[in-house]
Amino acid sequence: MSSRPQPEEMPCNELVELVTDYIEGRLPPRDVKRFEDHLEICDGCRTYLDQMRETIGALGHLPEKSITPEARDRLLEAFRTWKWRE
Ligand SMILES: [Zn+2]
């Protein structure tokens, strides 16, 4: 196994925060690159990504506990706007 030095290496905790954006295709290309580079070198995060994908696939949405307060606020905002428009 050769390991390439990564100037912008993504730490595990950042990957965990970005995983939902990655799955939903909302990550900027630059971060997608760093995300995937990290997956190549980190078994733990690959497993985490797989589990998240399975969970989302099974439930059709994210489990509440995995949503950050910011993401939850965005969702609530979206739901509110949506309701008012109905
Ligand atoms: Zn990792």
Structure, described:
The protein is mostly helical and 86 residues long. The chain is built from 4 helices and no strands. Helix 1 (12-23) packs parallel to helix 3 and helix 2 (29-41) crosses helix 3 (43-59). The longest helix is centred in the middle third of the chain and has 17 residues, at 43-59. The chain is globular. It starts with 11 loop residues before the first helix and ends with a helix. The relative contact order is 0.12. Bound molecules: zinc ion (ZN). The site of zinc ion (ZN) has 6 residues, from helix 1 and helix 3.
Summarize the structure in short.
The protein contains four helices and no strands. It is globular. The chain is 69% helix and 0% strand.
Features:
binds zinc ion, 4 helices, single chain, mainly alpha
Architecture blueprint of SSEs:
Elements: H1 12-23, H2 29-41, H3 43-59, H4 69-85
The chain binds zinc ion.
Zinc ion (ZN) is lined by residues 12, 15, 38, 42, 44-45.
% residues in beta strands: under 5%
Question: Counting H and I runs of at least 4 residues, what is the number of helices?
Answer: 4
Present as ligands are: zinc ion
How many beta-strand elements? 0
Helix content: 55-70%
Cα-atom radius of gyration: 15 Å
Largest sheet, strands/sense/barrel: none
Oligomer: single chain
Shape: globular
In terms of structural class, how would the helical and strand content be classed?
mainly alpha
User: What is the averaged pLDDT score?
Assistant: 79
